[in-house]
Amino acid sequence: MNIALAVPPITVETTQSVVPIEVTSAAITSFLYGNGFLLYAISTFFLASRSRQPTRVGVRAFYLSWEFGVGTVLFAIVTAHWILTVLRLLRPLQSADIAHWQLVLSFVDEASGTLPAKEALSFSAGSILNAVVLYVVWDREKMVIVFPILTICGFAAFAVACIYFFTHLKADGAFYNNMFAQMLTWAVVLSFTTTIYCTLLIVFRVWRVTRELNSQSGSMQRRAVYAFVQSVALNALAMAFWIICFFVRSWLFLIAVDMWTQMTAISFMLLAFRVGLGRQQDLACAVPPESRGVISHAQPGRNDLIALRRIRVVEGGT
Fold it and tell me: What is the architecture, at CATH level 2, of domain 17-283?
């Protein structure tokens, strides 16, 4: 299937739209980064409060927890992405005598270094969130993760190919044509598919499990899945916006790609924040004896951030 996705070439209309879009993209990225920073700080505080013990074991458990590791890596990625976005905007503006045409060329020069680096960070953040969502879904059931593993592997392959081709493109304003456009589009589509698949599977599992629980425990599980779905939906909407911008051949793609990177981190940190807030409020009360048959074999003391990891499909009832 041949998908011809071409951003309009550099014309008079382009010169009138690229610079405002770059400024808007930097402003939106800065706003989203600020929100992500607050969510990261608060969720880390909640996690540290839960793991705080007067021993070295408790401190080391906090720093070695996968929740802290994933959150920190994502925060580092979006920080680097935000810095590149700001530098990309400010660097051409440092020369007061730069011509408007040269300014536009500096923004659309996708092989100059900043755009390939930003794309690499975007794909890295997307890969991490896909892995986290897959981890939430997986409960040692191999058949469940066959499809998302294939989509994640495809996403990774397309991402590597896109970064390679990105560094070999010319600054002609038509950098989403032919094979490159197809690879970039399919990379985002595969990531979007992984997110939707895992989200629907979680909803299905919770629906099956809550049928066997009493009203209190069932309500707790439903609140957990609501938090998960709402958080992941932010990332899904950002990817959908990206895909739409591709198919309508809009320069808004420059905003969409920056939004997707920041929203990827915000999705995880928002989930961590909501779960941490729930724990601080003691919403995660003890599981009733009658519902133990439908709760998985989570190890005692395990520092699971996402309560949904405790849910498994119950075959044949309790």
Answer: Up-down Bundle (1.20)
- For residue 138, how many C-alpha atoms fall within 13 Å in the half-sphere facing its CB? 15
The answer to whether 240 and 248 are in contact (CB under 8 A) is no
311 beta partners: 295
Contact 112, 75 (CB under 8 A): no
16 CB burial (10 A radius; 0-12, 13-18, 19+)? exposed
CA 116 to CA 13: how far, in whole Å? 25
Of residues 140 and 288, more confidence is placed in 140
Tokens 């939906």 sit at which residue?
A: 233
Cα–Cα nearest to 105, from 245, 23, 11:
11
State pLDDT tens for residues 49-59: 765 555 566 66
CA 154 – CA 146 distance, rounded (Å): 12
For CA atoms 283, 284, 290, 293, the dihedral sign is positive
- Say how far apart CA 223 and CA 281 lie, in whole Å: 14
Query: Mean pLDDT, to the nearest integer, of 103-119?
Result: 63
Write down the domain spans for the chain.
Answer: 17-283
Residue 78 has pLDDT above 90, yes or no: yes
37 CB-near residues (< 8 Å, 6+ apart) = 75
Contact 35, 101 (CB under 8 A): no
Long-range Cβ contacts of 105-108 (<8 Å, 24+ apart): 105/10, 105/171, 107/18, 107/19, 107/22, 108/10, 108/14, 108/18, 108/171, 108/172, 108/173, 108/175
What is the signed CA dihedral for 137, 140, 146, 149, rounded to 10 degrees? 60
Nearest-5° Cα angle at 254, 249 to 259: 120
**Average pLDDT value over all residues in the chain:** 70
